[in-house]
Specification:
CATH superfamily: Sodium:dicarboxylate symporter
Number of strands: 0
Number of domains: 1
Radius of gyration: 20 Å
CATH topology: Proton glutamate symport protein
Bound molecules: aspartic acid
Order of helices and strands: HHHHHHHHHHHHHHHHH
Number of helices: 17
Largest sheet: none
CATH class: Mainly Alpha
CATH architecture: Orthogonal Bundle
Shape: globular
């Protein structure tokens, strides 16, 4: 309910308020490079860990009907990079808003923010002030919703355990542990190198302020659903200026998925091991490249990681049916990787505001 209007109004208002396309251009260039680097690092960690621990060696295959359903979704959910770039331009902005197409909304909001600057006098001021007011109203709506969030978080958590059973954790234990260890390692790297090294914020201070966001990401399994809270936390608690958070965070929810990329690295190597397929160095590099690019343009919603995984597997000729092996534990791992996805976005917003000297 709050994601689309919040992203649209705040990004439009802050681009117009900034009055400078160059500034957004520089910020955009920087953050995209940053996102690609952190994603590539994440998936490298996943691939290396899975090679060291070898969780798939000696495993027997199992088939499952669910794989068909996943394969059916692949083409829709995993567009090529070129198509993603072309599709960024909405043919109808209202449709983009209605469908919650984040890249199209970002594109249109920035463009409209620049266009309004060409309008003279009072008309311009009225529109910008209204957008600022509406974006503040969305934030206060998020504040109201957050009052009942703890009950929602509790219910979502209970629902997952009731539906999947505690055994989701006991099956495939080694594989799950490798993913969890990789996620932890990546989070520690982000906190120490990016947040402290580049952003100059102490990790424990950040964790205290970001705790609410992390719990919310965990229980919803969705970077998109967490976005309003991520934006509020960046602005109100971490002091990130509005134009940085309203640009970097929605972009991050869509294109920056460190946790998901890492998990794909582990899963690809795990399935290859289960099928006794030796992966050459170049195949592993291809996995890293494909997973990094696959994370661009896929929305941060529950379960999208496993859909993108089919693309990664196909790129190096690993049988897609292998996904059946890991479906059972996917929900819990999805919750965990979403925490890392969202934390990565939040840390990026801190680092970017430091680069902006704010
Ligand atoms: N659920 C993740 C997110 O929203 C994406 C995924 O890995 O499935 O960030």
């Amino acid at each position: 309910m709050t994601v689309v209007p919040l992203v649209f109004f705040s990004l439009f208002a802050s681009t117009a308020g900034l009055g400078d396309l160059k500034k957004i251009g520089i910020l955009g260039g920087r953050v995209i490079v940053y996102y690609l680097i952190t994603t590539a690092v994440a998936i490298t960690i996943g691939v290396v860990l899975a090679n060291l621990v070898k969780p798939g060696v000696g495993l027997k295959m199992a088939a499952s009907g669910d794989v068909e359903a996943i394969l059916g979704k692949v083409n829709k959910a995993s567009p090529s990079l070129v198509k993603t770039l072309i599709d960024m331009v909405p043919s109808n902005p209202v449709k983009a808003l209605a469908e919650g197409n984040m890249l199209q909304i970002i594109f249109f909001a920035v463009l409209l923010g620049v266009a309004i600057l060409a309008v003279q006098g009072e008309k311009r001021e009225v529109v910008i002030t209204a957008a600022q007011g509406l974006s503040e109203a969305m934030i206060s709506l998020v504040n109201m919703i957050m009052k009942i969030a703890p009950y929602g978080v509790f219910a979502l958590g209970a629902g997952v355990v009731a539906r999947h059973g505690i055994k989701v954790l006991s099956n495939l234990l080694v594989y799950s542990l490798v993913v969890v260890a990789g996620l932890l390692l990546h989070l520690i790297l982000l906190l120490s190198l990016s947040l402290y090294g580049l952003g100059r914020i102490k990790p424990w201070e950040f964790l205290k302020k970001a705790r609410e966001v992390m719990v919310f990401a965990f229980s919803t399994s969705s970077s998109n659903a967490t976005l309003p809270l991520t934006m509020r936390t960046a602005e109100k608690k971490l002091g990130v200026p509005g134009y940085v958070s309203s640009f970097v965070l929605p972009l991050g929810a869509t294109i920056n998925m460190d946790g998901t990329a890492l998990y794909q690295g582990v899963a690809a190597v795990f399935i290859a091991q289960a099928y006794h397929i030796p992966l050459t160095l170049s195949a592993q590099l291809k996995i890293i490249l494909t997973a990094t690019l696959a994370s661009v343009g896929t929305a941060g919603v529950p379960g999208v990681g496993i859909v993108m995984l089919t693309m990664v597997l196909t790129s190096v000729g690993i049988p897609v049916e292998g996904i059946a092996l890991i479906l059972g534990v996917d929900r819990i791992l999805d919750m965990l990787r979403t925490v890392v996805n969202v934390s990565g976005d939040l840390i990026a917003s801190v680092v970017m505001s430091r680069f902006e000297r704010e």
